[in-house]
Protein 1
Amino acid sequence: MSKVRASHIGRRGAVSAAHPLAVVAGQQALFQGGNAADAMIAAQAALCVVLPASCGLGGDLLALIHQPDGDVVAINGIGRSPANPTFDHAGADGSAVTVPGIVDAWARINARYGRLSLGACLSFAHELAVHGARMGKATPRAVRDHRMRLEAGGGSDWSVVASPDHAIQPQLAALLADISERGVEAFYKGQIAAGIEAAVARAGGCLSSLDLACHVTTVAAPVSVGWEGGHAYVQPPMTQGFLLGLCLDNLERRGLQKRQNLEHICVELTEASFAYRDRAEDTSALMGIDLDINLEVASLRGGPRAYLHTAGVATADNEGHVLSSLVSVFDEFGSGVYVPEGGFVLNNRARGFTSAPNDAAPAKFPVHTLAPSLLVRDAGVCALATPGADGQIQTLLQIIARMAGSAPMELAHSIAAPRWRSEDGKLLIEASHPAREDLAGRGHRVVVRDDGDMCFGGVVAAGLERGLPFAASDWRREVWHGVF
């Protein structure tokens, strides 16, 4: 059965994150006089230490930032494929690596929105790496599942492989200290950049030091759709977050969110929207289209795929900053390619290339699965994010739609409520879901999973209500929250 975890209201700030130690890191940044941007970076850095199967310095960051003046900006901390004309993503593990974007995004966010130094934001994560920390509870299983890949990728001596329950990570600690002192130069140039190039080459790829040196974080306007008298914001290209915007836009414009069969309609919208996934670059042209759905019975189009990883952080402060973010190396341990000079593994985001226009090419962004969201209404601002790859759109759609449905749910209850996930033509559903029989009766290929199965995500939430910061979190996975 689902477990409603109460939300909490603070006075200075709020943090919700994919691991309790990340919440502590974010709160420490707030204690030190930092704001929500500082807290987000601190929490993400801690996640890079304790959840190495899901995220790390070899991966990416996407965030939406609500500013005190009401403007919302999107940070796309994602990297391109190698510029080498021989690039082919379908070969060895090294060929799947794109330029890691998280470190440059941290520096950009810190310089533009933060109050603390970047070193102060990374200090808690540095201490975790120096003294050792208990890894996320899924890490030992992930190491068992991927040991052969990690050893083939050069990680035989990685402390996380040797001790996946509780690891001291001296190389990662040294890199975090160097980034704290020298900024992005410590990662994108010099020893670490050369180490990345060498590790990728050993694994059959062609990412170069020049690719790293040329990397720039994209700062852009988000995609916005009207929602319940306000706006819902999602990431702009190159992410599939726009699919959530398509679904919410269809619910709002067509007046579907108050219907009794809302769960069925949301499944239909999900599957219809994923037909446009590869066209993320055309987001502006696609917004406003009517998705072709059957309001009564299952169309059985499928579309969403079956992979699960990523980690979320949501933060807020009493000045008006609210941030929704996700960090990721794509698959578990990404490419499995280990960089011994820095103590981290590299992403395999090039596996996100599919068919045209999302086909693989040199120096190109693949469509990303990362899809943080922000809701801005008269009542306040709410940041929502969840892991789950193609499940992200679906989980957030269910939560947001339920808060506006015929019997509206409060945020904490909507997060706790049972969920479904469309995956490879089947409809996975938590055992306690009240619409199980109705959805099966409408023709959906229902497959019952235990309540709390990893496939249903782990939602982080933070925001502002009546000017005060609040946080909420999922009972699923290891998500937690705290306020100050």
Note: Residues 36-50 form the longest helix (15 residues).
Protein 2
Amino acid sequence: MAGPKWRWRWGLSGPGRPPKDRVIGIKFGNFSFVPLDENGLPLQSEPLYLMPDELEALRLVYLEGLTQEKAASSMNVSRGTLWRLLESGRKKVVQALVEKRPLVFSS
């Protein structure tokens, strides 16, 4: 699934410094995880959305085993930004599991 790295960032809007591009190592595409009930039917609840940079931060640190410093360098962001991405991504994943909510990924 590995391919050329690509850049992603939030849209430009409002005052202030424009956001930096984040280097994403894998093209994830659009997909979702939906919890099922005991009959195998999807549960209907409000989905949570995991952004590409949050998923990339989780992948680099927890799957690839990189330090936060190396993962931040790989994504072209500060270590503080990577820490915030990890915190946000972890919260969304745990919230989806505990509250049985769909988890949606889009690039």
Note: The longest helix spans residues 79-98.
Protein 3
Amino acid sequence: MPAMKMPGADPAAIAKFEALRPRRPDVIVKKVFGHPAAFVRGNMFMGVFGEQVFVRLSEPALAELGKHPGVRFFEPMPGRAMRGYAVLPATLLAKPRAAGAWVQKSFEFASSLPPKGTGPKKATKKVA
């Protein structure tokens, strides 16, 4: 099976990400799939993938966001949606206050999750 080519990060999407991400000392920006993503307590809550800006939300908030036209689940690989993540549509991104409200909900949700460790990953047992 040939390797899937990852899209390059779109400068306009990066600009939207930078305009929307919270400016707080507990928000860390790292690269995921070669694109910027924001984390709080080790949990990713928003990011960029190609031309998309995505957020992580609770199930009720995802259902609420899903009422907006053009919202879809975040799929870094076709057919492989990341559970709990949705792409903010261009119509919503064009409204900074509305998009910012969704980013804030995303930040609050990720802040409520247990922190993820930053130490070395535990070794997993191989099953024969």
Note: The helical segments are 11-20, 59-65, 90-93, 96-112.
Protein 4
Amino acid sequence: MNRIASTPEPPYYAVIFTSQRASGDDNAYAEMAGKMFALASQQPGFLGVESVRDADGVGITVSYWSSLDAIKNWKRNEEHLVAQAKGKSTWYQQFQIRICKVEREYGNPCR
């Protein structure tokens, strides 16, 4: 996976998932995260993802989508619903989800 997502010309949407991990089974969490990335990648409207987590367990994952309908469909995906429930019951102390419309972007490779 490329660390910085390659996205199309705006507009498109970003889902920002900020979380604080609870202590627990890191292997099971990593396995589920990998499954969710693979599953999301197959969803219509998925454009890419970027994700980081610090040593204290605070993480930010930004997924990019072509439309609000694509985001709604991903949220309702049955396997994703199972992962969401496990996250609420086991893997996260706290989380916040923000949905944004990207209207402009810029940047370039520095090297």
Note: The longest helix spans residues 26-41.
